[in-house]
Amino acid sequence: MADMEGRILVTGAVGQIGSELTMALRTRYGGSNVVAAGHITEPTETLRDSGPFVTIDVRESAEIEQIVDKYQIETIYHMAAILSAVGEKNPYMAWDVNANGLLNILEIARQRGLSQVFIPSSMAVYGPDVPRELAPQDCALNPTTMYGITKLAGEALAKNYIHNYGLDVRGLRYPGVISSETPPGGGTTDYAVEIFYAAEASGHYQCFVRKDTVLPMMYMPDCIRATLNLMDAPFEDLEYPAGYNVEGMSFSAGMLVEAVRKHLPGFSCSFVPDERQRIADSWPLRLDDSAARRDWNWMPQFGLEEMVEDMLMRV
Known about the structure:
The chain contains twelve helices and twelve strands.
């Protein structure tokens, strides 16, 4: 979507990724051309005042239709989702929002002839049987969490609408995303954000995964850039449009603590794993994103040290 053709709708616009993605899109296309949609959480003043803001429950097709028609929407970034830790506690809601909500979006996009739909997938589509050292782009997917199951269903729905209806649907398998602007909302990788706030506020953090837990991560500026770059790419160049692996860096919780200590020597961290450790142990240590690098020139700009330095200046 290199050129503006109609307005954009961002669902989940108050969430961790959606809030910053909305502002990036408004910077690129103009505030009035990007409609932000939330559901329960109130928007920040910046988000509310920089362009249209509406309330949508993505489980209600009629609510989406009304907004798409009213604002003449051409592109949807469907960021609304129930995340991994919350999804395990409420699997029915996770399925209803993540799978049924996406089906509503895709069907309305098909009926209205929309130009593009972006859907976020996740590394959670992988299960414990995947090669953990480097999860391949193309392999059998057997997730063991409800969140992962809904994201796998989302990729399958996207492929269905691409092949059966010619709809331009694109997605990324996000790793853990680290951001200084909006707190995460119930994900298994939340510790990688919380640690920065705790380091500044109290000088101590109690981490809910083991010290040796390694997961793929990405800093928010890279996350936003990857999303926009994928949407800009010619569709015919995309071999895996419904779910490209991307990552920025991979590190253990202990490595993150040591990186923070380089800047804040007095910082301390204890490790007390909870139920989220089981989820983390089912995910790969790294994602093979060579297909994204090949097909649309993906290249991260932030490694661990660069991310930590920038985060500590912002929180």
